[in-house]
Design brief:
The complex is a heterodimer of chains A (942) and B (418).
Chain A (H helix, E strand, L loop, with lengths): L13 H9 L4 H16 L8 H6 L6 H14 L4 H14 L5 H13 L3 H15 L4 H17 L1 H6 L2 H8 L5 H17 L10 H13 L2 H11 L7 H11 L8 H15 L7 H17 L4 H17 L19 H14 L5 H11 L5 H17 L4 H13 L3 H17 L8 H6 L7 H13 L7 H9 L7 H17 L5 H12 L5 H16 L1 H8 L15 H8 L5 H5 L74 H12 L21 H23 L9 E4 L7 E10 L2 E10 L9 E4 L7 E2 L14 E9 L12 E7 L4 E7 L14 H10 L5 E7 L5 H9 L4 E8 L2 E9 L5 E8 L8 E8 L5 H13 L1
Helix pairs in contact in A: 1-2, 2-4, 4-6, 5-6, 5-7, 6-7, 6-8, 7-8, 8-11, 10-11, 11-12, 11-13, 12-13, 13-15, 14-15, 15-16, 17-18, 17-30, 18-20, 19-20, 20-21, 20-22, 21-22, 22-24, 24-26, 25-26, 26-27, 26-28, 27-28, 28-29
Chain B lengths: L1 E8 L4 E6 L9 H10 L9 E3 L4 E7 L2 E7 L5 H19 L4 H6 L1 H11 E2 L2 E2 L4 H7 L5 H10 L29 E14 L5 E15 L5 E6 L8 E3 L5 H7 L1 E4 L4 E10 L9 E8 L6 E10 L8 E8 L4 E8 L3 E5 L4 E7 L8 E8 L11 E9 L8 E7 L6 E16 L1
Parallel strand pairs in B: 8-23
Antiparallel strand pairs in B: 1-2, 1-5, 3-4, 4-5, 6-7, 8-9, 9-13, 10-12, 10-22, 11-13, 14-15, 15-20, 16-19, 16-21, 17-20, 18-19, 21-23
The chains are: A alpha+beta (942), B alpha+beta (418).
């Protein structure tokens, strides 16, 4: 006798039959009938018509029957709200039952009846159950609050259930605590603004105690809740970490991953010098490795998370490469993820092993996997320079296999290798050309065409090759068309004599016969360029391209930091912040890693930062870069809370390539035939022309503005203090040289002569480059203006504040001392523009503790204005992006002593008088940040 | 939290649905079917599938897809772990977890699922608690229930539900008190063409079957606990004792449970007990290929290797194989191209081998890939890592239990590339 009998139907009609049975007098028959109803329900049959008959069976002592009726009720109450009220009385009665199981069952079920009308009847029973003496009832009631909140949030707030729920966090029973936390977390998710889980050290302590005693599921809730807490200092962070680490040995992988999240987040607050930091790093590796021996589904989620962890803290798994080696019967989704992590972990030490593995994978059966493996070989070459040669020869071996998709994939990655290591592996071009005919995928064709165009001068029959592609120009995909256009223009610029016809042909194909605006515009740009200024064309088209690096596929640091806070969640599986995909955008709170705060200094503000060295006492030399980390000033080191950065670097790369891969100078200028007038209609000519000049405005603007902002002169030494000599001055920086512009006024009654000047040792080694030249004696009431050139090769001593300069001026009367603060931007050197890739790498490389954030208020400028203003003071904009309507500028600058400062400037448009610029600075010597910020402010506000 | 659960068989029928919050239309599974279609094999269906309003998380076990529907941000591992628990519970209740069995017990299944989650929050997932709430069906009980009209739903609050030892109920009684521990180690390894080890690791578990009266408190100590540096414990194990003394101290769950799982990955600790010599060659010109493999023992600490089974997925181009084994039986399925050879025991004096030819499609070029050989084997009375239990002590109860420890080594994912 099995339950399958419940599925058999009779001729009379099922519902009719069941109705009769449900109304039977015999208990047993009733129960069997309800079971039949439930069985139909489980397979999705609609049995809602039986509602009144089933509810009639509810008044019973038979627990099984009661439970079955409840199951039915939960499913169908919503469709029969009026009938559902019939059930209320039974619930109210059951909530008073002496048996806690029945009380809990009642409170559990009534929360599942999602009918507005009856919710208010449930408040009283629920209130009682929340205070029930039996913890089983209390923990069930806690969940019921969450259910009720889902149906009618206002009611729950009005009835004060949220406060009762908060009280349950202090319950004596750990299971009740866990459920209260779970319920509150769920409610909080739909009310991001509410401060429901108000965590403080006391409640944290309670949670940590409950953590040891509650069920595995409860542990997950508590750990996820802990992860939202920000400890007040590193000591608290460490003590929480210590109590969370045992969870890493739990059998339930979700507990392990939630614990990893808490640790990864709080680790951010610990100093790297701490012994404990190292211990923690070591403890994190084994549980992550263990996750990989679990079922494939768990492995997949674990791998997605490990991908993030490896990017944030590569040191954790750097010795564990082998566990990511692919087994041939792993599911494809696991294989692809493992491959990704293998590349991230690849280093000089293990590259040989990795390559051998990748080569093995490239002979497998699964096409997607093979492709990715081939691509991975290319990425290894780009990432580990020493291995490039081996990678290239491996790729060549693979091309020899002649397996079509392997060849195509290999060519795509070889193109990237050429970009990374120009003029090194071009000998393989011949081999590549042999396979030209087998390429049928756009990406591979485009890559091959790029190679031919780029190395046209080395390929004898480049024109023939490109011409062959040209025949089917209109059948190609846009990607190939664009690449073909650029390649032929390159070819023309390199071999103008033989290829004139070809270039004319492609230009006319692109501009006249194509309806793709991108292609047409690019065609016109080339055409104009070639016809107006062939030299410029060559400079543009054949310009040196920025090198690419493996960083291009890394997650942007700010996004990565945010995702680290979401380890173990769906966000970590998709590598997108929840705001990007959570339904309706509700419940979106940006999370950020906690800033590092040392316990002893936590209350001090940046201004009262501890003095490094009292001036003139210790011959304390300012070390450059890294060493400074030791005596960190207490700056506000919060990492940026950023919106979801969407554009990936590769997209930007593409844009650069469009221009960089393009225009060029033309030797055979005279040979060039201007496009026929018809091709560029007059009406079109103008906009194109102006469009072009717009394009170049950006760069030309740079050249005209030279010399950074100069502050008006200020009085440095008042006459009263210097026996009648008044000195005022300012600092300037013009085309690479710094000078101190001084104005000396003699307010005494005697003539002053024999001027000399000397600087005390200072932070950046500023020193006069020439003696102070005052040619004639200074008569009373006479003023003389002097520009004193400075250099930065003087002795170095760290000053407090950093930009303090102590000056001694001597004349025939006496020696006078004064000190002044120089603006830091006079130290920004002209070659402070960092390469884009370098920037990304450096930004990632500098630890987050070194990041400082500032706000610049009342600065009604747009991104262009800001950028050009800063550029004139040698702060260079490397990239600009628009994220959610905000402009983000990425900038770099270099100080005279070689310290790089990287900046991310966020400009919120809108009301101009309210514009706030958010400035995040990253620098290996974080104490300069404060001064750089001041420089920013000075420059932008003047 | 977990919104709904759908059980889907391999032909794409939804044969059970359970909702813990509002009802989600089963049309949401269409997204799952799409993904299923894209993935060529059931094993390759991605475990997380986004849909416009929901997320589908699935596991594939016993030819059934368990698809959970979630609506808000929930830790996916939590959901997947829970689904595993559902599978384990079904197996525990009905002996096997299969579509017919679930259909036969649909009401019990439904009742159990209702007890496991409340509003999507796990409620009771420990099997001993569940069994007190909903008694598993037995033939005897079904008969008794029919006659007496009693139910298989417990009406008392399970004792373990709220205690600090939820895995054990009070008042357990046995006439024979016994505690058995199985130390089982699986070797996962990849061996390359030349026979050198690329990766090798040991996944070990200690499974316990404890039938002891009352509330015993057990202590298990090892001869060489230093081997265990990467461990996951059953919640019953006291972590502090392990940290300080490296002994396992615990109040055991009642019945069978996994006490500990561990992972040994240091390469020098992982001995490889077998080797495979292979010579598989295709020639471009000929439509015949040569095939020869020999299996032999290596580092077995003097124990016999048994239950050896060789399987290999042959390339598509292989039409048929004509092979002769020196021992055991072999089969080749020309449709799936799966070769399997049941070797049995390895006799070190006379190594088992399988030799012969493969017939290939005429005219086709030789296959690009060489087959990977999968190996299964067992070694009794040996834990290959060298782990040894020192002693087992019991406190808290007066009687003298019967104790037993068994060791076994098995092949896990053991692959030899050719």
């Amino acid at each position: 006798m099995t339950d399958s009998k419940y599925f058999t139907t009779t001729k009379k009609g099922e519902i009719f039959e069941l109705k009769a049975e449900l109304n039977s007098d015999k208990k047993e028959k009733k129960k069997e009938a309800v079971k039949k109803v439930i069985a139909s329900m489980t397979v999705g049959k609609d049995v809602s018509a039986l509602f009144p008959d089933v509810v009639n069976c509810m008044q019973t002592d038979n627990l099984e029957l009661k439970k079955l009726v409840y199951l039915y009720l939960m499913n169908y109450a919503k469709s029969q709200p009026d009938m559902a009220i019939m059930a209320v009385n039974t619930f109210v009665k059951d909530c008073e039952d002496p048996n806690p199981l029945i009380r809990a069952l009642a409170v559990r079920t009534m929360g599942c009846i999602r009918v507005d009308k009856i919710t208010e009847y449930l408040c009283e029973p629920l209130r009682k159950c929340l205070k029930d003496e039996d913890p089983y009832v209390r923990k069930t009631a806690a969940v019921c609050v969450a259910k009720l909140h889902d149906i009618n949030a206002q009611l729950v707030e009005d009835q004060g259930f949220l406060d009762t729920l908060k009280d349950l966090i202090s319950d004596s029973n750990p299971m009740v605590v866990a459920n209260a936390v779970a319920a509150l977390s769920e409610i909080a998710e739909s009310h991001p603004s509410s401060n429901l889980l108000d965590l403080n050290p006391q409640s944290i302590n309670k949670l940590l105690t409950a953590l040891n005693e509650c069920t595995e599921w409860g542990q997950i809730f508590i750990l996820d809740c802990l992860a939202n807490y920000t400890p007040k200092d590193d000591r608290e962070a460490q003590s929480i970490c210590e109590r969370v680490t045992p969870r890493l040995s739990h059998a339930n992988s979700a507990v392990v991953l939630s614990a990893v999240k808490v640790l990864m987040k709080f680790m951010e607050m610990l100093s790297k010098d701490l012994d404990y930091y190292g211990t923690l790093l070591k403890k994190l590796a084994p549980p992550l490795v263990t996750l990989l021996s679990a079922e494939p589904e768990l492995q997949y989620v674990a791998l997605r998370n490990i991908n993030l962890i490896v990017q944030k803290r590569p040191e954790i798994l750097k010795h564990e490469m082998k566990v990511f080696f692919v087994k041939y019967n792993d599911p494809i989704y696991v294989k692809l993820e493992k491959l990704d992590i293998m590349i991230r972990l690849a280093s000089q030490a293990n590259i040989a092993q990795v390559l051998a593995e990748l080569k093995e994978y490239a002979t497998e059966v699964d096409v997607d996997f093979v492709r990715k493996a081939v691509r991975a070989i290319g990425r290894c070459a780009i990432k580990v320079e020493q291995s490039a040669e081996r990678c290239v020869s491996t790729l060549l071996d693979l091309i020899q296999t002649k397996v079509n998709y392997v060849v195509q994939e290999a060519i795509v990655v070889i193109k990237d290798i050429f970009r990374k290591y120009p003029n090194k592996y071009e000998s393989v071009i011949a081999t590549l050309c042999e396979n030209l005919d087998s390429l049928d995928e756009p990406e591979a064709r485009a890559a091959m065409i790029w190679i031919v165009g780029e190395y046209a001068e080395r390929i004898d029959n480049a024109d023939e090759l490109l011409e062959s592609f040209l025949e089917g120009f209109h059948d190609e995909s846009t990607q190939v068309q664009l690449q073909l256009l650029t390649a032929i223009v390159k070819l023309f610029l390199k071999k103008p004599t033989e290829t004139q016809e070809l270039v004319q042909q492609v230009l006319s194909l692109a501009t006249q016969d194509s309806d793709n605006p991108d292609l047409r515009d690019r065609g016109y740009i080339y055409w104009r360029l070639l016809s107006t200024d062939p030299v410029a064309a060559k400079e543009v088209v054949l310009a040196e391209k920025p090198l690419i690096s493996e960083e291009t596929d890394l997650i942007e640091p700010t996004l990565l930091d945010e995702l680290i806070c979401y380890i173990g969640t769906l966000a970590s599986v998709y590598h997108k912040p929840p705001s990007a995909f959570v339904e309706g955008g509700r419940g979106v709170v940006h999370k950020s890693l906690p800033p590092r705060t040392a316990s002893s200094e936590s209350t001090e503000s940046p201004e009262t930062a501890p003095a490094g060295a009292p001036p003139g006492e210790q011959p304390d030399v300012i070390p450059t870069q890294g060493d400074l980390l030791g005596d960190l000033l207490n700056l506000d080191l919060g990492p940026p809370v950023s919106g979801p950065p969407l554009a990936t670097t590769s997209v930007q790369m593409g844009a650069v390539d469009l221009l960089g891969g393009g225009l060029d100078s033309l030797i055979g200028g005279p040979n060039f035939v201007a496009p026929p007038a018809a091709a560029v209609p007059a009406s079109l000519g103008a906009p194109i022309g102006s469009g072009l000049s717009d394009l170049f405005d950006l760069t030309s603007g740079v050249g005209t503005l030279s010399g950074s902002y100069v502050a008006p002169k200020a009085v440095w030494l008042p006459a009263m203090k210097a026996k009648g000599l008044e000195i005022s001055g300012t600092f300037t920086r013009q085309v690479g040289s710094i000078s101190m512009d001084l104005q000396l006024t003699n307010k005494a009654l005697q003539v002053m002569t024999d001027f000399a000047i000397q600087f005390n040792r200072n932070s950046f080694g500023l020193a006069p480059a020439a003696p102070l030249q005052v040619h004639a004696p200074l008569s009373p009431n006479q003023t003389v203006e002097i520009s004193l050139p400075l250099n930065t090769v003087g002795s170095v001593m760290k000053m407090e504040p950093l930009n303090n300069l102590q000056v001694a001026v001597k004349n025939n009367i006496d020696v006078f001392y004064f000190s002044t603060l120089y603006p830091l931007h006079i130290l920004f050197v002209e070659d402070g523009k960092m390469d884009r890739q370098m920037f990304l790498a450096t930004w990632k490389d500098i630890p987050n503790e070194n990041e400082a954030q500032f706000q610049i208020r009342d600065c009604p400028l747009n991104a262009e204005a800001v950028s050009s203003k800063l550029q004139s003071s040698n702060i260079f904009t490397i990239a600009k992006r628009n994220v959610e309507g905000q402009d983000m500028l990425y900038q770099s600058l270099k100080l005279t002593n070689g310290i790089w400062v990287l900046a991310e400037l966020r400009i919120q448009p809108g009301n101009p008088s309210f514009t706030v610029l958010q400035l995040s600075l990253k620098c290996r010597a974080p104490e300069v940040s404060q001064h750089v910020y001041q420089a920013y402010e000075t420059i932008l506000k003047n | 939290m977990i919104h709904s659960l759908f059980l889907i068989n391999s032909s794409g029928d939804i044969f059970l649905e359970k909702h813990w919050k509002s009802v989600v239309s089963r049309s949401v599974c269409d997204y799952f079917f799409e993904a299923q279609e894209r993935a060529t094999e059931a094993e390759n269906v991605p475990p997380v599938i986004p849909t416009p309003h929901h997320y589908l998380l699935s596991v594939y076990r016993h030819k059934i897809f368990f698809v959970a529907v979630i609506q808000t941000e929930v830790p996916p591992l939590f959901v997947i772990e829970f689904l595993h628990r559902v599978v384990d519970t079904f197996q525990d209740y009905f002996g096997v977890c299969s579509e017919p069995v679930i259909k036969d017990n649909v009401v019990v299944v439904y009742e159990v699922l209702e007890e496991m989650l409340d509003n999507g929050f796990p409620l009771a997932t420990e099997s001993n608690i569940l069994k007190e709430l909903i008694k598993p069906p037995t033939i005897l009980r079904t008969v008794v229930n029919t006659i007496t009209g009693s139910t298989n739903v417990g009406d008392q609050l399970p004792t373990g539900q709220l205690s600090v030892v939820p895995w054990r109920r009070t008042g357990v009684k046995y006439t024979n008190n016994e505690a058995y521990f199985d130390v089982i180690e699986e070797i996962d390894a990849i061996i390359d063409k030349s026979g050198s080890t690329i990766t090798a690791e040991i996944q070990g578990v200690i499974d316990a079957c404890v039938k002891l009266t009352g509330m015993p408190d057990l202590t298990l100590s090892f001869m060489n606990p230093r081997l265990l540096d990467d461990v996951s414990f059953h919640p019953c194990v006291r972590f502090k004792r392990w940290e300080s003394e490296r002994t396992l101290s615990f109040i055991p769950a009642d019945g069978s449970f996994r006490l500990l799982s561990y992972h040994v990955s240091a390469q020098n600790l992982v001995a490889i007990p077998v080797y495979v010599r292979h010579n598989i060659s295709f020639r471009d010109s000929s439509s015949l290929g040569r095939f020869e493999i020999t299996v032999g023992p290596k580092q077995t600490m003097g124990k016999t290797i048994e239950g050896v089974m060789v399987t290999s997925q042959m390339p598509k181009g292989v039409l048929n194989m004509s092979l002769t084994p020196s021992q055991g039986t072999h089969t080749f399925d020309p449709v799936t191209k799966m070769l399997s050879w049941d070797v049995g025991k390895i006799n070190p004096q006379k190594l088992p081998s399988l030799k012969g030819t493969m017939s290939l499609q005429t005219g086709a070029s030789k296959p690009d890939e060489n087959p990977t050989i999968n190996l299964q084997f067992k070694i009794q009375q040996l834990a290959i890592s060298g782990l040894k239990v020192n002693r087992l002590d019991m406190y808290g109860e007066k009687y003298k239990p019967f104790k037993g420890i068994k060791y076994m080594t098995k092949a896990g994912k053991f692959q030899v590339r050719t």
